Amino acid sequence: MMTHAVPSPTKFAHLVLKTSRFQEQLDFYQGLLGARIVHRAPGMVFLSYDDEHHRLAILERPGLLPKLKNMAGVDHYAYTYDSLDDLLVTWERMASAGHQPVWCTHHGATISIYYRDPDNNVIETQVDVFDSIDETNEFLEGNDFQSNPIGVDFDPADLRRRLKEGESWETLRLRTPSGPRDPATIPRAYLGGFAWMMLQFRSRTARK
User: Fold this and answer.
1) Structural domains in the chain?
2) CA dist., res. 197 & res. 186, Å (int)
3) How far apart are the C-alpha atoms of 19 and 11, rounded to whole Å?
4) Which one, of 59, 13, 31, 14, lies nearest residue 117 by Cα?
5) pLDDT in tens, 29-80
6) Region for residue 180 given its phi and psi (left: phi exceeds 0; alpha: psi -120 to 50; beta: otherwise)
């Protein structure tokens, strides 16, 4: 009897969001992704930012209940940029539109800036630190990441200033080893109030 390996998909194709805040979501994602509308019909829009026919669809569903931050489900989804400059230009554009990040952290393998959309979905924008998967995997197996897989937080305004002043990518991409990090130090704006309080409680209990 012939056996076959489990086939894997060739790519992740698209994400579909349902919302009762249709125009707000459309404005947010067009601003974040620099996406173009490839199809629009009443209560539906398809967006793309590359050669895929659509990467994001937004469906209007009036009367939906608000999303609770303390529900199980997807924590966040992520988009990778080609350069630190692209990542920070996006940050500047989002900030000018009134969308401040909920977390900016250097994970070691990526430099990441997180946002919440109008429906409380979390989106990570990131740039890869290393040039190859092998280098990334080597870092993930190393002591720095094993000690602190969460991240070292940074100020995007400071990083943008340093980049504009000519500091090299080879310097900017480095993460200063910081030792272990308590999950309770992750920003409340990213976690949501309930999860943040639970982590505070667990952290205080562990110290007793």
Assistant:
1) 13-62 (3.10.180.10), 74-186 (3.10.180)
2) 11
3) 25
4) 31
5) 999 999 999 999 999 999 999 999 999 999 999 999 988 888 889 999 999 9
6) beta
